[in-house]
Design brief:
Number of strands: 0
Largest sheet: none
Radius of gyration: 23 Å
Number of helices: 5
Distance between the termini: 65 Å
Length: 128
């Protein structure tokens, strides 16, 4: 039972760490992902726009958090109008990602559908 107090003190020390630098550092791999995805010709363009829109969501959320704190003295989660407005950008980003990949897979509603191949085409020997 001595592990419990040690875990508590570890959590207290971790709770005192400022998370700000971690948020900034987390942008680096995401920006690298966006850069690489933009260079892959087969990457769905609509999905890429959705991933890029996620960055706009982050910016809008930061702005809305500042407005919420300065105008009401509350955190963003407690100001429904601002919180909902910021979350709308995330919803739109997720929708673009989902529709982009669905279109690329040929399964989007109203899309062309998956490519159909004839049996003779499937059973054709490889010409290598």
């Amino acid at each position: 039972m001595t592990a419990l107090p040690a875990a508590g003190s570890l959590l207290e020390r971790l709770g005192q760490i400022d998370p700000g630098p971690f948020f900034v550092l987390s942008l680096l791999p995401y920006l690298a992902f966006l850069w690489l995805a933009g260079r892959i010709p087969s990457f769905p363009k609509l999905a890429l726009r959705g991933f890029q829109l996620t960055l706009l969501f982050v910016a809008v959320t930061i702005g809305a958090s500042i407005v919420a704190l300065r105008s009401t003295g509350q955190q963003l989660a407690d100001v429904d109008g601002l919180h909902g407005g910021a979350e709308a950008f995330l919803t739109l980003a997720n929708l673009l990602v989902a529709v982009g990949f669905a279109q690329a897979a040929g399964s989007a509603p109203g899309g062309p559908g998956p490519a159909q191949r004839s049996t003779s085409e499937v059973n054709k020997p490889y010409d290598g």
